[in-house]
Known about the structure:
By secondary structure, the protein is of the alpha/beta class. It has helices spanning 11-22, 35-38, 57-61, 76-85, 103-111, 132-137, 155-167, 186-197, 208-219, 223-235, 243-248, 255-261; strands at residues 3-5, 28-32, 45-48, 66-69, 90-94, 115-121, 140-143, 149-150, 175-178, 184-185, 202-205. A 7-stranded parallel β-sheet has the order 3-2-1-4-5-6-9, sandwiched between helices. The protein has a two-stranded parallel sheet with strand order 7-11.
Amino acid sequence: xxxxxxxxxxxxxxxxxxxxxxxxxxxxxxxxxxxxxxxxxxxxxxxxxxxxxxxxxxxxxxxxxxxxxxxxxxxxxxxxxxxxxxxxxxxxxxxxxxxxxxxxxxxxxxxxxxxxxxxxxxxxxxxxxxxxxxxxxxxxxxxxxxxxxxxxxxxxxxxxxxxxxxxxxxxxxxxxxxxxxxxxxxxxxxxxxxxxxxxxxxxxxxxxxxxxxxxxxxxxxxxxxxxxxxxxxxxxxxxxxxxxxxxxxxxxxxxxxxxxxxxxxxxxx
Length: 269
């Protein structure tokens, strides 16, 4: 069974390649813009291309049985149509919560008529890196919506689920809500980062406009959109789902484990 991983040198896509190899997949093709710089593992076939350039996809799709579709909205419909024309049997797509920003990916996949598995992760633990500038500068994190709570997931865990969905067709037709193992407020996440670093970090609650201005230093024009999304989680916190852990066959990564593993994000080089 030949598996094609698109976005194979981005954060999750690269992890998916590694997880497929760990599961024993022996016919993996990786789509990347620059094969020479990809430094993919031995035994992985490398194809040059990009979802954003559909003309590069037919060659990459040739002979493929299962496709991992990275989330690239502008050409999702064409990428899925070409997959169907190439005879690909099923798609495992990375999207997001139903009805949210990435819904168009799922819509494109289903419109293709191919068998599918939708991966619907919530917020990535890695998004906590938006605080890295402040934490490197001192022990105070100025933010807003401190009581907004969700169950963030480690990207490594998403990759494990994706790889299993690619090799196991028992997950066909399912939409998999993927979260981490615990619901945490933004305030609590800052505390846990401090614990991982051996420091006592202080969370300072800001009014909405000031919070947006602070986050805009790191998120630019997306800060207001992000804050409005967090505000919804104050009254409607996201609950943790056991799905990721159940499919992976091991406990999901906790936020403290993630923070310890990625402590370098919050420390000076």
